[in-house]
Every structure is written in structure tokens, then in C-alpha cells.
């Protein structure tokens, strides 16, 4: 690896130091320990970053070592520094051109991925406008340049080019993709040719065309061979970018990608492909005039600019050709493995089936389910209005978004991303070329991903079926309002309309928020399989209850009835508390008025003399006043104000009126032991838990027999009258009277003594 550094004594010394650094790196790599199932380097960075840096491997440390080594090399004298940087740069360019089949090319290394294309545009401008250096933008004004971008290009690319080049936005021309034939993510070549002819007729200059070898969204490759012929015909610079350029290093390459080797320039990102951190992107190009490349900024005489290639130079030597090919091949095999597995899974649509060589797999769950399967029935969507079609599209997008988030959590090593496409909607993308080398994705992870997809499909299908039933049940239930929120992936959204709810207002409702917060707490206490959350309606600021994904055995009627009964109970309790507060306030005011009146009457009874300090004491000593303590007590149950005189007389407080029962739901469903709420009570079904047995069914039958009501209990009690051991009616009446605290008829004691004895 270090033969290039051994040809000069100074360089040989530097090579020796590099060998020592590599030895230290290998020693540090051996001292690894396993923590939380992940291998972390023992010599990790101390401080807040310790334990948070991913395991980048030896090749990653080699790339990071290149940055430190570059700073060390920059301290050499100018002549030695020039020789070394030129050697490193030329070797790196030669290796990259040979690996990716780009003959006689030059390279520009840059940190920003789009920077290389901006430099290429400058080179194209200088090449096509000979007087640009002298006249500047006056030349461009007379004959405006045109840059053609595909409609499937990554977002923001055109705006970035105009900002970097100082060109107006009319210089950009967006080429649409195919609409009739071919992939909908490939550039329409026939329409592009028509646009080029129109621009030439208007006096414009077609300057540059940006083609895709793997679009940023779905990984489709344009017809680069046909585009190259069109560019040669009209003298347009052809630039290619995309993730599929990595397959040029493999033995077998598709013809569409292989045509990129004949283009004028291409931008590659070997860092993500090979799992190398802090490695610059590379733009390979072909041009014979070094003066124009220097003016465009593609070449530089500064050693610091040449040292940008050092991390990649070290990494390429460490991996070797076999290591580079093996990593790219492994990523392609992962995508092909997932694609072949998803073809066998029902209800999953793959968007790149026609491109077997694409290392990107994009799939989504679709709602048009076949009618042949009795479990998963299709949602009928014949003769639907555009608004209904839009709602179904948003609903399906919400389900796919939920599926993507679940898969990302369950299989984090897969590196999935959720994206929104204009034509297809929300999809899930698997691009191992950009993630597998960093995350360490293996074939077992792909198999686990497929298993997770299959396990989530029943929930998705049942949720899609139960949405209409949930809507009908809510609309048929008084007090509930169905909220149409297509962005929610659950079975639906519902709002409880209380008595003071202003339906015409879109502002927030504090009383409704309080009711929905209590409803959420009550539903979560039931410990069902459903997930609930509250939030504002997407059309207004009012609170709503969001019901999550559901399984096929969900009892929607019981769920809606429980929501309505619980919300009604919370509202009644809240209203009862408010009424009680008002009654207590009025009772206190009334009691104060009566106490003040009683105090005035007492003063009139006692007279004025008894109020004089000394005279009143003497008068009270000779003739004491026998006055009872009078007060007021407030009965919360009856809501009435009573005197406290009976309490002081009989030394006991009355029982008062029995409070009313707490309101509850109109129906309480008997559940088997181990059966969770909102499940259909199908005996022998999956609603039972693993610990359930046949005895649980017998217990449920006994409970049903015992729940015959008070009539059955009365009949059983009356049937014991003729029994020998039954007590006599007189004894029963006597016992009942004693339990109630009533005096016995034979007793001659007054009622007060009876109350005292009972006390």
C-alpha cells in the first residue's frame, strides 16, 4: 500500500510514520468490548461523545486518519509537498477511472455533492462562450444558456445551480417524464428533443443536460444512450449522476448504466457506497483544455485542495479492488433479495419491477384487495367522485406512512426511508447502496424485514375494512360526531359534542378539551389493544379522539358505545360538580343570613342589660339563660339547609337521603377471562389469552345464570318460608326493626332514650 511513499527518502520516512499509525490503529481495533449488543471501540472519544459514535470499522478509521495525515503533510516544504500531493491526486484519479470504467478522465473532489455540477456548468459556459472572460454576462444576455433537468431530479438542484452561477430561473428547463410508454420516472426523450428545437428557434443556446443513473426517489435510470446521441447532435454537455453509477464497478452492468461511461461528466459519492465517513464526493469529467478547467475551478495549484483526495486514497488502498467490488455487490444482492421476496407477498406493490439491475427497491401497500380472499376483501371503489378518490388516496398514504415508521423501528438495520411520490403517493424505499455499508445490513435483516411486513398486513387490511363500519356506528350514535381526517392511519376520528358545544365555531373549546382528556384517560385504563390519542381537528382547533389501528376481531359497536357512554358520564359528573358548587354557594349565603337573624333575635330575648359587661355578668349569675346552640347544616345530597338543633338534642346526625347512583353505560358486556375489551366474544377464537381454558367458558355460563336480576333473588328468598329452619315472621320483623334502629313497641322509654341506647 505504501510503495508510493518509499521512492523518496522523505516520503519513505513519512511512510514509516504512516505504518506506525496503522499499527496503532490495528492495536486499538483489537481492544474491543461488547456493550448493549454492539461492538464499541475501547479507546472511544471521552466526554459527551463517548458511546454515541457508531462502529465505523477499520476502513472508516483509515479515512479519518487521512484528515490528520493531511494536516501533518501540509507542514512539509513546498517542493516535497508539491510532489507528494501530485502523486496522491494522480493515483486516486487513475484508480477511480479504472474502477468505474471512465477512461482518460479527470477528477474534482468536493465536500458538497452538488458543487461538482456547478463547476461543470462553469466549464460548459466557458467552453461554449469564447468571449465570456472578456464580455462577461453580456454574452449570456444576447444568447441565453439553457440547462435541462429531469422532472425526477432531486429537489432544489436547479435553484442551487442558478444561485451558484448567477443565472435567472428562466435559464432552467424542466423536462417531463414519460406519461404513455416506459417508466414514469424516466426522462421523455422525444419531448426533450422538441424542447431543444424550440429553444434554438428562440435564439437560446442549449448548454447542459443532467441525466439520472438512478433517480433520487425510486432509482430509475434514464435512457442515457439515446440522450448521449441527442447531446452530440446539438452540442450539449451531458452530465450523469445517481446511485446506480456504483454498479459500474461490477462485472455485469446493465446497458443503460454502462452508457454513462461515454458521458462528458459524472458525479459519484463513494463515501456512502463503501461506508467511509468524511470522504469527499468525486466528479469525473473529460476536457482537453487545462486553462478552462482552471478558470472553472475544477483544478487548483494549491496543495491543500489536492490533499482532499488523501482520505479516499488511503481508503481505496486499504479496501483494494476486491473489497470495493464486494461491498457494492453485497448491496445489490440485498436489494434483489428483498425484491424477490416481496413479489411473493400479497397486497404489496413494487415500483421498480421492470429494472432488475436497480439497487433501489420501492414498495407500498395498496388498497385494491382481491375479492377472492374471504379474509381480506377489497374496498369497493367503482364510480367514485374525485373528492372520494382523493380521500382514499390520502387514507392509503397514511397507512403506508404508518407501515414505514413501524418497519423502521422494528428493523433499524434496514435503513428504510418513507417518501412521497407525486403519482404513486407515499412509499417505502430500501436503498442498501447508501445505507448497508454504514448500518451493516445483512441478508438476515432483509428476511426479518419481509417477516415484519407480512405480520403488519392483516392489521392494515382490517383497519381499512373497519373504517366504514366505524363511521356508520358513530353517525348512528347520539352525541358523537365523525371527523373525516384522511391523514390519520387508524380506523377513524370522533368528537363528543357536549351540551354547550358551539358547532359553528372553529375555535378551541376548553370544556370539550376537558371531556376528551378524561375520556382518553378512561379508555387507556381499559388496557385494550387499541391506541388512543387526542389532538385538534385538522380543520379547526377543537379536540378530537383519534382511534388507532385495529385487528379483524374488533367489536366496533362496543367501542363506539363505550366512547359515547364514557364521555356522557364525564360530562354529567362535571355538570353535577358545577351544580353542587352553585348550590353550596347559595346555601352558605342563606346560612349566614339566617345565623345573623337568629343572633338578632337572641339579643332581643336577652335584653340590653345582659349586654353590659359587669351588669350582664351579675344578672346572668342570678338568672342564667337556658339557650340552645343554634346553627345550620347543609345536606349535599338533598341540597337543603337544616338546623343543627337535632344534632345537639339527640347527639346524632341524620342519615339523610341516599345519593343517586353513578351514571354508567347502558350495556356491560360479559367477557371471558383473559379477553381484552372491544373484542368479539367468539368462543374458541383468538380473543382468549394463552392462559384461557375450557373452564373459563363454564365460569362465564355460571355468571350469566347468577346475573338473573333481583327478581330471581326475591323468588329464592320467598321459597324458604316453609323451611323448618327459617325464622318466624315476628322474629324477622323484630330483627328488621332493631337493625333500622326503630324502638320496640313494648318499650315504654321515650324516643330520646332509645336513640341514646343505640348510640
Structure description:
This protein has 25 helices and 19 strands. The longest helix is centred in the last third of the chain and has 51 residues, at 556-606. Helix 1 (9-30) packs antiparallel against helix 2, helix 4 packs across helix 12 and helix 18 (510-525) packs across helix 19. It has a 7-stranded mixed sheet, sandwiched between helices. It folds into 3 domains: 2-33 and 57-321, 3-Layer(aba) Sandwich (Aspartate Aminotransferase, domain 2), CATH 3.40.640.10; 328-370 and 390-460, Alpha-Beta Complex (Aspartate Aminotransferase, domain 1), CATH 3.90.1150.170; 477-501 and 509-613. Its cofactor is pyridoxal 5'-phosphate. Keywords: Coiled coil, Decarboxylase, Lyase, Pyridoxal phosphate. Residues 470-575 form the PDXDC1-like third domain.
Contiguous helical run count:
25
Number of domains: 3
Strand content: 5-15%
Name the CATH homologous superfamily of the largest domain: Type I PLP-dependent aspartate aminotransferase-like (Major domain)
> Span from first to last CA?
103 Å
Helical/strand content category: alpha+beta
CATH class of the largest domain equals Alpha Beta
Runs in which pLDDT lies below 50 for 5 or more consecutive residues are 1-7, 32-53, 369-384, 662-668, 683-697, 706-759
Give the integer mean of the pLDDT values: 77
**CATH-derived architecture of the largest domain:** 3-Layer(aba) Sandwich
The side-by-side strand order for the widest beta sheet comes to: 3-9-8-7-6-4-5
Shape descriptor reads: elongated
- Based on CA atoms alone, the radius of gyration comes out at 42 Å
Q: Any idea of the CATH topology of the largest domain?
A: Aspartate Aminotransferase, domain 2
Kindly state the number of beta strands: 19
Proportion of residues in helical segments = 40-55%
Amino acid at each position: 500500500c505504501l510503495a508510493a511513499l518509499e521512492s523518496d527518502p522523505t516520503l519513505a520516512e513519512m511512510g514509516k510514520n504512516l505504518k506506525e499509525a496503522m499499527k496503532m490503529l490495528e492495536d486499538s481495533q483489537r481492544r474491543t468490548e461488547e456493550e448493549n449488543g454492539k461492538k464499541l471501540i475501547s479507546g472511544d472519544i471521552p466526554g459527551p461523545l463517548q458511546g454515541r459514535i457508531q462502529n465505523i470499522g477499520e476502513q472508516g478509521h483509515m479515512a479519518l486518519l487521512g484528515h490528520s495525515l493531511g494536516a501533518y503533510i501540509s507542514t512539509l516544504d513546498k517542493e516535497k509537498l508539491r510532489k507528494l500531493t501530485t502523486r496522491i491526486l494522480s493515483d486516486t484519479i487513475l484508480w477511480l477511472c479504472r474502477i468505474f470504467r471512465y477512461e482518460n478522465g479527470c477528477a474534482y473532489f468536493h465536500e458538497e455533492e452538488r458543487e461538482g455540477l456547478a463547476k461543470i456548468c462553469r466549464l460548459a459556459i466557458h467552453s461554449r462562450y469564447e468571449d465570456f472572460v472578456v464580455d462577461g454576462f453580456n454574452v449570456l444576455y444576447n444568447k441565453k444558456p439553457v440547462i435541462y433537468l429531469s422532472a425526477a431530479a432531486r429537489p432544489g438542484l436547479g435553484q442551487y445551480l442558478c444561485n451558484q452561477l448567477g443565472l435567472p430561473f428562466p435559464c432552467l428547463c424542466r423536462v417531463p417524464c414519460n406519461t404513455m410508454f416506459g417508466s414514469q420516472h424516466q426522462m421523455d426523450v422525444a419531448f426533450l428533443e422538441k424542447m431543444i428545437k424550440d429553444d434554438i428557434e428562440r435564439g437560446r443556446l442549449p448548454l447542459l443536460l443532467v441525466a439520472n443513473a438512478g433517480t433520487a426517489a425510486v432509482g430509475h435510470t434514464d435512457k442515457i444512450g439515446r440522450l448521449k446521441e441527442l447531446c452530440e447532435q446539438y452540442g450539449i454537455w451531458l452530465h450523469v449522476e445517481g446511485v446506480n453509477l456504483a454498479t459500474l464497478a461490477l462485472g455485469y452492468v446493465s446497458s443503460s448504466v454502462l452508457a454513462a461511461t461515454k458521458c462528458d461528466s459524472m458525479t459519484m459519492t463513494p463515501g456512502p457506497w463503501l461506508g467511509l465517513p468524511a470522504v469527499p464526493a468525486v466528479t469525473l469529467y473529460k476536457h482537453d483544455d487545462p486553462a478552462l478547467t482552471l478558470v472553472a475551478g475544477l483544478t487548483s495549484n494549491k496543495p491543500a485542495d489536492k490533499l482532499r483526495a488523501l482520505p479516499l486514497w488511503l481508503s481505496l488502498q486499504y479496501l483494494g479492488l476486491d473489497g470495493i467490488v464486494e461491498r457494492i455487490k453485497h448491496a445489490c444482492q440485498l436489494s434483489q433479495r428483498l425484491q424477490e421476496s416481496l413479489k411473493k407477498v400479497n397486497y404489496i406493490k413494487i415500483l421498480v419491477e421492470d429494472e432488475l439491475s436497480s439497487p433501489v427497491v420501492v414498495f407500498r401497500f395498496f388498497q385494491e384487495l382481491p375479492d377472492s380472499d374471504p379474509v381480506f376483501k377489497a374496498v369497493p371503489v367503482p364510480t367514485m367522485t374525485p373528492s372520494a378518490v382523493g380521500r382514499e388516496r390520502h387514507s392509503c398514504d397514511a397507512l403506508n406512512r404508518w407501515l414505514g415508521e413501524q418497519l423502521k423501528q422494528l428493523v433499524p438495520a434496514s435503513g428504510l426511508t418513507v417518501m412521497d411520490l407525486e403519482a404513486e403517493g407515499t412509499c417505502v424505499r430500501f436503498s442498501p447502496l447508501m445505507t448497508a455499508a454504514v448500518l451493516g445490513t445483512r441478508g438476515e435483516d432483509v428476511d426479518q424485514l419481509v417477516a415484519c411486513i407480512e405480520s403488519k398486513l392483516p392489521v392494515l387490511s382490517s383497519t381499512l375494512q373497519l373504517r366504514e363500519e366505524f363511521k356508520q356506528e358513530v353517525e348512528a350514535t347520539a352525541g358523537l360526531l365523525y371527523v373525516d381526517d384522511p391523514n390519520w392511519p387508524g380506523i377513524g376520528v370522533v368528537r363528543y359534542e357536549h351540551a354547550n358545544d358551539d358547532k359553528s365555531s372553529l375555535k378551541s373549546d376548553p370544556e370539550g378539551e376537558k371531556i376528551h382528556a378524561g375520556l382518553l384517560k378512561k379508555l387507556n385504563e381499559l388496557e385494550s389493544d387499541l391506541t388512543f390519542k387526542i389532538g385538534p381537528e385538522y380543520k379547526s382547533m377543537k379536540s378530537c379522539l383519534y382511534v388507532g389501528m385495529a385487528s379483524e376481531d374488533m367489536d366496533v359497536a362496543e367501542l363506539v358505545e363505550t366512547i359515547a357512554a364514557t364521555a356522557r358520564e364525564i360530562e354529567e359528573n362535571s355538570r353535577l360538580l358545577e351544580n353542587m358548587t352553585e348550590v353550596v354557594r347559595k346555601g352558605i349565603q342563606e346560612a349566614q343570613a339566617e345565623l345573623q337573624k337568629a343572633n338578632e333575635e337572641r339579643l332581643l330575648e336577652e335584653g340590653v342589660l345582659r349586654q353590659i359587661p359587669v351588669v350582664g355578668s351579675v344578672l346572668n349569675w342570678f338568672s342564667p339563660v337556658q339557650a340552645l346552640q343554634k346553627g345550620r347544616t347543609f345536606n349535599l345530597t338533598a341540597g337543603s339547609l337544616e338546623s343543627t338543633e337535632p344534632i345537639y338534642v339527640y347527639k346524632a346526625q341524620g342519615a339523610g337521603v341516599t345519593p343517586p347512583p353513578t351514571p354508567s353505560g347502558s350495556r356491560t358486556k360479559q367477557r371471558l377471562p383473559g379477553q381484552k375489551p372491544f373484542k368479539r366474544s367468539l368462543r374458541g377464537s383468538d380473543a382468549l389469552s394463552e392462559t384461557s381454558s375450557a373452564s373459563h367458558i363454564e365460569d362465564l355460563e355460571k355468571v350469566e345464570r347468577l346475573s338473573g336480576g333481583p327478581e330471581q333473588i326475591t323468588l329464592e328468598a320467598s321459597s324458604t318460608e316453609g323451611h323448618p329452619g327459617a325464622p318466624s315472621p315476628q322474629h324477622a320483623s323484630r330483627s328488621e326493626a332493631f337493625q333500622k334502629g326503630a324502638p320496640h313497641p313494648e318499650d315504654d322509654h321515650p324516643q330520646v332514650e332509645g336513640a341514646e341506647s343505640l348510640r
